Amino acid sequence: MSATRFLFQYAKRYPVKMILTVVLGFSGAIFSGVGTTLIVPVILNLLGQSIELQSAPPIIQKLLSPFGNIPESYRLGLMTGAIIFTLVLKNLTTYLNTLIAASLSRRLTCDIREAGIQLLLDIDIDFYSKTKVGDLINRLGEETRRTSSAISLYIGLFTTGITVFTFLTLLVSISWQLTLATTLVLAVVTGINQSIISRSKKYGSALSKSSRNYSVQLMEILNGMRQVKAMGHEQAEYESLKILSQKREKAEFQSLMNSSAIAPINEVVNMIVILLLVVLGRRFLASEEIQSLTTILLTYLFLLFRTLPLISTLNNLRSNLAQNMPSVLIIQEFLRRDNKPFMNNGSLPYPGLQQEIHFDHLSFGYPGNDKLVLKDIDLHLPRGTTLALVGGSGAGKSTLADLLTRFFDPVAGAIKIDDHDLREFDFKSLRRAMGIVSQDTFLFNTSVRNNIAYAKPNATDEEIFNAAKRANAYEFIITLPQGFDTQIGDRGVLLSGGQRQRLSIARALLQNPEILILDEATSALDTVSERLVQEAIDQLSHNRTTLVIAHRLSTIQKAHQIAVLDQGQVVEVGTHNELLAKGGQYAKLYSLQFADEVSRDAALIKSSYEVRSRLNPMIGFLRLLLDEMVDTPEEKEELIMESYKSATSILENLEFIEKCVKLRLKNY
Q1: DSSP notation for 518-583
Q2: Is 14 left (phi over 0), alpha (psi -120 to 50) or beta?
Q3: Choosing a second label site near 28 at 20 to 30 A (CA), which of 101, 319, 450, 633?
Q4: 7 phi and psi, to 5 degrees?
Q5: 412-417 and 374-382: which strand pairing?
Q6: What are the DSSP E strand ranges found in 238-397?
């Protein structure tokens, strides 16, 4: 789709304003042309030179014919009044056209910005992992503003174009020979202007690119200001932004320098055209009487004087439009929905959990990546119970929680709620039934009250206070300078980690979710904050269906089920005591965190034994493969698979031994 069609798609939503713009633009052009054409005869009459209608150009004869039967003593006054009246009408229509065009432009700008905001709210979460926030803000801000300017320029082009066409028609009707000569001269100017306009598009593209780079870099620095200051990189970031700012200003100056060349070039050419026309007029109109020649030539020159600045304006508008066209193309691409990920919304309103949540043999890989993050996960979470997920970093715990909230959909299998696929439910009704408390708590830059009430905008003060008390947050809130009305800064920067976490829990308590997701909610807290937050979490998760992700095993020992994930697969499931008794991976994690030196040494000895017991047969398998002692392809495949399993087991045990050694060194 072309940029023009893209803008027209939005403009056609307001047909009345578009029609009024056309009608007023055309009317203004007619009034301007008529008034301008009548001025010269009236001025000549005022100077005492009578005009013979028979010798005047046909267009002037037609315009003056209504005044032919009026007595001469009144004729001049009425003609003067007619000129003033037409000019008043012209300026009135121009004024109304400007207002309507501005209203249309503003409305279209709002429509484009609203479409962009709606797109960002509808699009899948995966889009944001691949797109920079600064780029999005630049598109909704600077690029949308420049697109809005393009809309105004199109309207200006249309209105000015109609006026130029009207004046050219009048010029041709007066003398087609002079108009042809003028056109030939102006063709040279048009070629020069076209060259400038072509460069304008290039400079406009460079300006869009430099503006985007500057916005993205500035946003990243502002978001990472703590890290910038912690690393002492203020000067380096300043120099980086300075370079980007200078590139942006250079691109803007080049664009301005290019477009500003149009006016002086046109002015010089216009003067040459006028002098040339006087010479040519004497030649083309040599047969006319001197009085008629004066009338024709003056009228023609006066109309031309009005036309040439309009042509210059037209060229300026085209140049500015070429500068802004890259922004239109950027916004057009941004608003496309066919090349962006959108999750299909279900039609069923979420009815509530009656029996269980079933992770039914699901597998998942991120879009554009063939590697599976989760493989054949099969877990049951009965209503009112707690399922804890443990495992190393990258095991897939948080990904599984993201699937439950339908931030992503599995590539195989399904998540079922009471035998209904999660994808059958409406997004909003499903997510309103889920509360999420994560390690990376997000708070808005507003008051404590508004942050808690975000879960329930119509909540009463009593409900907000009660949620804060149950979250162990009330005591610190009332000590803040303005209590619940205290502004907490960007992302809650004025609060400690434990305070932010408790506000998040208060928000979840106020929401009163049926399903609760706790994603390492206490992993980054000190001992005192952890105790307070854990008490709040216990209050929050009481009698709720809860999915817990935790590194600290002390927080999940009372869970009804514990699932151990490793490399995207469930390797163990059971209660805390059952998993300890198995002596598997959970027991190793527990020993690493809680066991005494003797128990840890025993675990180290056991891991060392497992390494040796796995290493010896693996060497034998590899020797058989190396010496080509295998009879069949199936036997070869089996030996390769056994070697792989042995290598994986050895790696896990070595990682465990490394953690134990690091812990011992830390204690010493």
Answers
A1: EESTTTT--HHHHHHHHHHHHHHHTTSEEEEE-S-GGGSTT-SEEEEEETTEEEEEE-HHHHHHHT
A2: beta
A3: 319
A4: -70, -35
A5: unpaired
A6: 356-364, 374-382, 386-390
Q: Which of 73, 93, 78, 86 is nearest to 35 (CA)?
A: 86
Query: What is the Cα–Cα distance from 185 to 173, expressed in whole angstroms?
Result: 19
Q: Among candidates 207, 178, 124, 423, which has minimal Cα distance to 298?
A: 178
Helices (H), 123-233: 126-129, 133-138, 144-174, 176-223, 225-230
Structure tokens at 567: 């490399």
Q: Rounded CA gap, 602 and 608, in Å?
A: 10
Q: Tokens 């060229």, residue?
A: 315
Whether 24 contacts 96, CB under 8 Å: yes
> What value does the mean pLDDT take over residues 160-174?
81
Q: pLDDT for 111-145, tens place per residue?
A: 888 888 888 888 887 777 777 777 788 788 878 88
CA torsion, ordered 402, 406, 408, 410, to nearest 10 deg: 100
Inter-residue contact 572 to 585 (CB < 8 Å) = yes
Nearest one of 97, 66, 263, 62 to 169, comparing CA atoms: 62
Segment 655-663 mean pLDDT: 62
In the sheet that holds 356-364, the strands lie side by side as: 374-382, 356-364, 412-417, 420-421
Mean pLDDT, the chain, whole residue set: 77
Name the nearest CA neighbour of 358 among 374, 375, 378.
378
Q: Which ranges in 3-71 belong to alpha helices (H)?
A: 3-11, 15-46, 58-64
What tokens appear for 365 in the block?
A: 């890989």
- The Cβ of residue 633 has, within 10 Å, a number of other Cβ atoms equal to 8
Which residues face 414 on adjacent strands?
360
User: Could you say which DSSP state residue 55 is in?
Assistant: G
Q: What is the pLDDT of residues 421-457, one digit of tens each?
A: 888 888 888 888 888 887 777 788 888 888 888 888 8
Q: List for the chain the helix, strand, coil content (%; round to 5).
A: 70, 10, 20
Nearest-angstrom CA–CA distance, 320 and 302: 28
Range name among 475-479, 520-524, 531-535 with the lowest pLDDT average: 520-524
Residue 309 confidence (pLDDT) above 70: yes
Question: Cα dist. 576→389, 421, 531, 631 in Å?
Answer: 12, 30, 21, 46
Calpha distance 567→575 (Å, rounded): 21
Q: Give the number of residues written for the chain.
A: 668
Q: Which of 167, 127, 150 is nearest to 306 (CA)?
A: 167
Residue 461: φ, ψ to 5°: -60, -40
What is the CB neighbour count within 10 angstroms for residue 461?
A: 10
Contacts of 49-58 spanning 24+ positions with Cβ under 8 A? 49/291, 49/294, 51/291, 51/295, 52/291, 52/292, 55/288, 55/289, 55/291, 55/292, 55/295, 56/292, 56/295, 56/296, 57/173, 57/174, 57/175, 57/296, 57/299, 58/173
Helix (H, G, I), strand (E, B) or coil at 123: coil
